[in-house]
Amino acid sequence: MILKRTLTFLLCLASVSAFAQDWNKKKCAVVLTYDDALNTHLDKVIPALDSLKLKGTFYLIASSPAFTKRLPEWRKAAANKHELANHSLFHPCDGRQPGRSFVIPDYDLATYSVRRITDEIKMTNAALEAVDGKKEHTFAYPCGDTKVAGVNFIDGLKGDLVAARGVQSVYVPHTQTDVYNVGSFMINGQTGEQLIEMVKKAMETNSMVVFLFHGVGGEHALNVSLEAHRQLLQFLKKNEKDIWNTTFIEAAKHLKATASAKK
User: Fold this and answer.
1) pTM, full prediction
2) Own/partner pairs for 156-160, CB < 8 Å, 24+ apart?
3) How many CA atoms lie within 13 A of 205 on its CB side?
4) Which distant-in-sequence residues (6+ apart) come within 8 Å of 140 by Cβ?
5) What pLDDT is attached to residue 202?
6) pLDDT tens figures, 152-173
7) More confident residue, 263 or 145
8) What is the mean pLDDT of residues 205-226?
């Protein structure tokens, strides 16, 4: 009986240990991503992150003036361990989809070839490397669109990209093996309390939550208030013993390593 209880206790300890190490020895992972290369990301978001020593991933449109006219500031952000990531050269979206009246003909993914989108993504990688000096980058699908002429264009880019972020509203398990369409939650108008509840659910389910921000305090139709964003960051900092705040590329590498270890 004593032996049986001892074995049960040891198994419980092993289970707790394995649980604790699923996300870099933390209960969950939280990845903060910011799309479209907005001025507010440099003016408001990065200072807020830096003040708490948190990290973010910035999906940059290489043609955006907020990128091209502020290169030294993006270089400084990269030097401070934020991730500069690929959101394409011109942010093309499929104009045939509902609610896409904003898509202009020149950058309508419905008229692109696979070669064109591939070349534009590779060009953006080159632009990012010129700023951050890194050869490894991740990608975020503009508007969540993954296909050109019915073809998954990412298939021809896996040698150029470490991983890709999608737009499926899902919590990511540590067992996920496909890192080229990792789900995320698009944020638009949520309160700080609602954002924090999403993190709490990730903690409860031992999963990763990827936040997809655009405007923070304005500058985009998809927006969250500075106060709500501040409350989220403060919660992450307060609970950092249980939460792994990391960049998207590091999270993807972690998923890859976990998958390889189980083979």
Assistant:
1) 0.92
2) 156/114, 156/118, 157/118, 157/121, 157/122, 160/121, 160/122, 160/125
3) 16
4) 33, 35, 59, 85, 86, 87, 164, 165, 212
5) 98
6) 999 999 999 999 999 999 999 9
7) 145
8) 98
What lies within 8 Å, CB to CB, of 82 at 6+ separation is 46, 49, 55, 56, 57, 58, 247
Distance set, CA 217 to CA 31, 63, 73, 164 (Å): 19, 23, 19, 26
State the DSSP code for 42.
Answer: I
89: exposed, middle or buried (Cβ count in 10 Å: 0-12, 13-18, 19+): buried
pLDDT confidence band for 3 (50 / 70 / 90) = very low
Q: Are 31 and 49 in contact (CB under 8 A)?
A: no
How many C-beta neighbours within 10 Å does residue 133 have? 10
Rounded to whole angstroms, the Cα distance separating 229 from 225 reads 6
